[in-house]
Amino acid sequence: MTARTEAIRLPAVPNDAPLPRSRYPLSFDVGFLSVSFHGKITLKDVAAAIPDRQVLAVIGPSGAGKSTFLRVLNRTLEIIPQARVVRGEVHFKGENLYGRGVDARIVRKRIGMVHQKPLAFPLSIRENVLFGVRFHQHWQGRPKDEFTQTYLERAGLWEEVKDRLRQPASALSVGQLQRLCIARALANEPEALLMDEPCSALDPVSTARIEELILGLKEQLPVIIVTHNLAQARRIADRCLFLADGVCLEQGPADRIFTDPASARVRDFVTGKIG
């Protein structure tokens, strides 16, 4: 990331809505972020101040740069060939994630990611949960079975799989696989969780379970979810960030974004006039 001569200072929360004083004011502080892919700008001067312990829904039309925005936040963008941050800064709890000497692997541990398509590693259910823990070696003296149970319980999956932990994870249903992926991410004990369309392939019952899980998780950490499901964003989001053509058109409290947006394009989108 290119160096800047002046520190970017953003308001504590853009647009409105005071933060609870008892909480750390910001998780992510994104300053004028621009990203290119194969030489084409896909995000342009996106600035966002994202509160801690809230759910932020990133919404907008397809191709708006929503998934790219998530990948910037935990430095998985740089894994993609020909994708790069052109300018801007990303701070997480005061630390510049793209600063000199910052280890991208540690960033990815601190900021977990759950993808749209749940992917089970060719291992048992138990070993899937423990995969990242083994890589980062942060057992902290806890027994592996206790570790496994703790995070499967947090993901709401323990009762369904407790008698078959050594069976292949590939035998799980799609909804169960997504919750396994969440358990695997949580086992790394992240400080934030990013979710890219985690419910797009799920039935209503599985979706409800994931949403209930998200609402529980925000008591401990910020959750940022990309979703095309506006009803889902209404149900679970504290705040929304609207992207279109790589530009942030609006951000603020979810209830205001859905009922009284300032941007005409956002209003047309959330009311269903455009898709």
Description:
This protein is of the alpha/beta class. The chain has a single domain (about 30-270), classed as P-loop containing nucleotide triphosphate hydrolases (Rossmann fold, 3-Layer(aba) Sandwich). It contains 10 helices and 10 strands. The chain has helices at about 65-75, 105-110, 125-135, 145-155, 160, 175-185, 205-215, 230-235, 255-260, 265-270, and strands at about 30-35, 40-50, 55-60, 85-90, 95, 110-115, 190-195, 225, 240-245, 245-255. The chain has a 6-stranded mixed sheet, with helices on both faces. A 4-stranded antiparallel sheet has the order 2-1-4-5, covered by helices on one side. The longest helix is centred in the middle third of the chain and has 14 residues, at about 175-185. It is globular and about 55 Å long.
Name the overall outline. globular
Radius of gyration: 19 Å
Q: Which bin fits the share of residues in helices?
A: 25-40%
Under the CATH scheme, the architecture is 3-Layer(aba) Sandwich
What would the CATH topology be?
Rossmann fold
Provide key terms for this protein.
single chain; 275 residues; alpha/beta; Rossmann fold; 4-stranded antiparallel β-sheet; 10 helices; 10 strands
SSE topology sketch:
Blueprint: E1 28-37, E2 40-50, E3 55-59, H1 66-73, E4 83-92, E5 95-96, H2 104-110, E6 111-114, H3 125-136, H4 144-154, H5 158-161, H6 174-187, E7 192-196, H7 204-217, E8 223-226, H8 230-236, E9 239-244, E10 247-253, H9 254-259, H10 264-270
Parallel strand pairs: 3-8, 3-9, 6-7, 7-8
Antiparallel strand pairs: 1-2, 1-4, 4-5, 9-10
Helix pairs in contact: 3-6, 4-6
